[in-house]
Amino acid sequence: MNNCRAILTESVPFLIACTVFLSAISLHSPMLVFCLLLGSLIAVVIQQISWRFNLPKRQLIGLQIIAIAIILTAFWLDYFAAPAQAQFFGKAEDFFQNTLTQGSTDSGTRTAVSLVFNVLRALFLLYIAISLISVVNAVRKDEDWQSIIRTPLLVVVAVTIADVLTGFIIGK
């Protein structure tokens, strides 16, 4: 009886951590409510396995890590299954559309601003695609692909930093 009580006492922090973690993230998606139920079921099953087979603490911890990995995998698969709908300079586009069209009923300005930003996005994506092709070709030819990839990576980092700074400047 004391052995079971000791094992239960050792598992309580794990169960509380799983419950808090899954409760917090389940507010954002119904799929994660399923993860909460799955986590509870896994915790009970792990406890029953450890009692039945008298598993050492090291194996119990291993099973708990596997349980957390399963739950996190389900969470990440659910999270990344939906499109992010992220686009760079989206805040800047909204800012210019709202600023340039104040007091105007003409929608042509909004269309022109959208066209300019979409052309910028298309050029950026084409540059990334062409750079990726050149890097793949360099790898196939056993050339120094690391020096070839530096410039596209710097461009991606620069555009990302510019997008973040634009959000800070605009205040959205």
Mind explaining what this structure looks like?
With 172 residues, the protein is mainly alpha-helical. Helix content is 84%, strand content 0%. It has six helices and no strands. It has helices spanning 2-26, 30-53, 57-81, 90-100, 108-140, 145-170. It is elongated. The relative contact order is 0.07. The model has no long low-confidence stretch (mean pLDDT 78).
Number of E-state strands: 0
Termini gap: 59 Å
Number of helices: 6
- Major beta-sheet overview: none
Task: Give the overall shape, derived from the CA principal axes.
Answer: elongated
Please give a quick description of this structure.
With 172 residues, the protein is an all-alpha fold. It has helices spanning 2-26, 30-53, 57-81, 90-100, 108-140, 145-170.
Blueprint of the fold:
Blueprint: H1 2-26, H2 30-53, H3 57-81, H4 90-100, H5 108-140, H6 145-170
Helix pairs in contact: 1-2, 2-3, 4-5, 4-6, 5-6
Keywords summarizing the entry:
single chain
